Structure to design on (295 residues):
């Protein structure tokens, strides 16, 4: 399951002067998609090394990480439990949690205050379970960084600009460490999808120890995490129809919008080679059906 993967590099059709390619990690798996697959690879290996067969993790009610973890655990024959942020009543009709349940994940709904204390929750519920293995929200960990760093080895080594969207910054940290490991001249451009995304630089630095080839673009959050505007929704529609490639409103649409906007502002040289990492997360569209009603 974590050996052969399908993640081709495809050129976008409608940006013509610059060569813009997309690393299609969204095609790795519909449910263990994109960076969540990359992150889980070594987390599952660590659990198995420590002979733990019960993953315990954390996420919001529309978390791609929860679905990915549930699917990966079922395929590996592992038990899994998730602490879900929020009240059960607000989540009953949620498509993402339905998938989690189908894959056999046990859900523990947790109010926002207790949810903040992840280590205490784990301790409270699973101190007696010697098989329980703690996996942080979004899979953030050194193992996840290692998995994401492997993406660099699958890319050409003459890329000028590599783009990714960031929530916790773990994926970005992996990409940047891969760039340094291979001694590439590539600049990593990171689009935080939340407001005040400057903290991402420090998150990345914790793992990489340097960030001289990093550029953060903090003004493409569209109001904050999971927030959208009609402009972004319109962009998703146009992009998807033109490229035949789905993008999600929470992460990848903000990244592609940023690239489009930098391109329009002539940020790139015509000869620059640009790659965008499609981190997947397309199920995120399901929670946002209503925002597409107007168009
Ligand atoms: C989770 C997720 C991200 C954010 O990854 P981080 O490592 O937390 O920065 C980006 N894109 C998609 C599609 C995701 O599901």
């Amino acid at each position: 399951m974590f050996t052969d993967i399908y993640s081709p590099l495809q050129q976008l059709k409608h940006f013509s002067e610059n060569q813009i390619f997309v690393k299609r990690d969204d095609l790795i798996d519909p449910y263990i998609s994109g960076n969540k697959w990359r992150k889980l690879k070594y987390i599952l290996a660590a659990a198995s090394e420590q002979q733990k067969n019960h993953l315990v993790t954390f996420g919001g009610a529309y978390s791609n990480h929860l679905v990915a973890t549930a699917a990966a655990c079922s395929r590996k024959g592992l038990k899994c439990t998730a602490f879900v942020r929020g009240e059960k009543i607000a989540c009953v009709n949620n498509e993402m949690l339905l998938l989690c349940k189908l894959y056999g994940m046990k859900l523990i709904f947790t109010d926002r205050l207790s949810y903040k204390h992840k280590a205490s929750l784990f301790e409270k519920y699973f101190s007696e379970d010697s098989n329980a293995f703690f996996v942080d929200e979004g899979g953030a960990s050194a193992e996840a960084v290692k998995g994401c760093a492997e993406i660099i080895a699958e890319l050409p080594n003459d890329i000028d600009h590599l783009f990714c969207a960031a929530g916790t910054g773990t994926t970005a940290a992996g990409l940047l460490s891969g760039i340094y490991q291979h001694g590439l001249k590539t600049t990593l451009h990171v689009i935080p999808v939340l407001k005040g995304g400057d903290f991402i630089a420090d998150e990345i630095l914790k793992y990489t120890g340097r960030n001289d080839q990093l550029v953060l673009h903090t003004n493409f959050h569209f109001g904050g995490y999971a927030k959208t505007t009609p402009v972004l929704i319109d962009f998703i529609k146009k992009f998807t129809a033109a490229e035949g490639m789905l993008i999600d409103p929470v992460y990848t649409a903000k990244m592609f919008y940023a690239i489009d906007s930098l391109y329009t502002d002539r940020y790139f040289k015509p000869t620059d080679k640009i790659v965008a990492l499609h981190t997947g997360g397309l199920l995120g569209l399901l929670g946002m059906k209503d925002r597409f009603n107007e168009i």
Summary: The pocket of pyridoxal-5'-phosphate is lined by residues 34-36, 64-65, 138, 165-172, 248, 251-252, 279-281 (CB under 6 Å).
